[in-house]
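Hey, I was hoping to borrow your eyes for a little while. I've dropped the whole record in just underneath, so have a look:

——
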Amino acid sequence: MYIPTLEDMLAARERIEPYIHRTPIMTSQALNRLTGAELFFKCENLQKAGAFKARGAANAVFGLSDEQAERGVATHSSGNHGTCLSYAAGRRGISCTVVMPRTAPQVKKDAVRGYGGRVIECEPSTTSREAVFAEVMAETGAEFVHPYNDHRVIAGQATCSAELLEQVDNLDAVIAPIGGGGMISGTCLTLSNLAPGLSIYAAEPEQADDAFRSFKAGHIIADDAPQTVADGLKVPLKDLTWHFVQRNVTDILTTAEHEIIDAMRVTWLRLKLVMEPSSAVPLAAILKNPQVFAGKRVGVIITGGNVDVDMLPWN
């Protein structure tokens, strides 16, 4: 298992710079008053392809040799990684196949196809996803780019918090959602090297809390098919992301479904930003645990904005 380094993150920044946005920071006095903290939202919902995963996907795709690239790339994804990998593959002019749960939002399936990717559907469980994907790999021989348990992907995601440190001075903490752990691992990689005094919090739905239970137990606990409105956070930790989580994360905070929906709605109203339910979990965790964040300067990573506006969870 190769553990990505700070040098890998720096190389990723240079490699992906032509293909991603340096996303903005937004603030809200209303949300600051509501939480008792100073919140700085890193808006990866405004990233290329609508999610932070464009960073890791671009790093993986543009790091391939010409021989590897000729076979194309493939992955399994609940949506955003598949969309972003299709985006990056399209920019390089290579093929991309994505195995997606049949229950994934239609907007995410359409986005994969819109960037030229091929969608193959599976049942909404880790077991089905991996079985169908094995068939795809046997058929295509493509380069597998894992959604999160891949050193190239983690190095790409780590560039997000590197930008955040340059954009906001004197942060006390950073919080991001956790599913498989790609963003959190990248955050840990950057902050443990460049800002080791910062606290790193992960936020997770109560109904898909395998990372929380893993963190408390000291070993990976994986659920097969959890049900939550935060569809991007249903996947379990793997060995590479667990390496960073167990060593660098301060705590994992969980939130109920209604708290996620309320946080999503208040962010839409106050920040005027389109964000998906998974992106609302960190704010939900801050609102639920004000004593943890009160009086602190907190970076909040809004991970994506690919939401089906015809299926908003508060309707």
Q: What stands out?
A: The domain at 54-144 is CATH 3.40.50.1100 (Rossmann fold). Residues 71 and 142 are 5 Å apart (CA to CA). The two ends are 45 Å apart (CA to CA).
